[in-house]
Give the backbone structure.
Amino acid sequence: MSEQITRHTRVDHARVAARLRAKPGQWQLVGDYQNPATGTNTASMIRRAGRPSGHHYQPAGAYDARIVLTTDGTRIEARYRGTENPAPLHPSPPRGGQKVRPSTDTERVLGQIERGEVRAGRAAAREIAARHEAAYGAAWPADHAWADALNSLNSTTSKGGA
C-alpha cells in the first residue's frame, strides 16, 4: 500500500498575471496547493501585489483571488479587475493585537477523539491488537504474563464490561 507523494508545481506568476489581464473579469486557475497556508498566502499576495511574486499583480487591488477547498488541499483562482476599479484592500490586523490562546494538549486530544480522528479505549485497543495479530501473528505468547492480562480483558468485556 504505497501512496505517491505529489509535489507542488511551481506557478509562473508572470504568465498567470498576463493570462488574467488578457481576459478581464474571468476567474482562472492560478495553482493547486497541498498546504492550505501556502494557498492562503498566495491568494493574499495576489490581492495585495505583495512580494515575492506579487509584483506581477501590480497595482494592489487590481486582481481578485479566491480559495477553493479541494480534497487534496486548496485551489487558488484569480481574476483581473483592472486599474480603474481596484478592489478595496482591508488593512492587516495590527501585530500584537488580539492574542490567540493555544489549546492544551488535553483539549486537542479530546477534540481529536470526539471528531473520530483518534480512537481510544478498550474496544479500540482490542481492535488494534486483533489487526496486528492477524497481520503479524500472535503478539503475546501463551506462556507470557501479558497473555493472561489480555485474556482477562477479553473475558471481562464478554461478560458485559466496557
Observations:
- The mean pLDDT is 76.
- The radius of gyration is 26 Å.
- The longest strand covers residues 63-70.
- The first helix runs from residue 13 to 22.
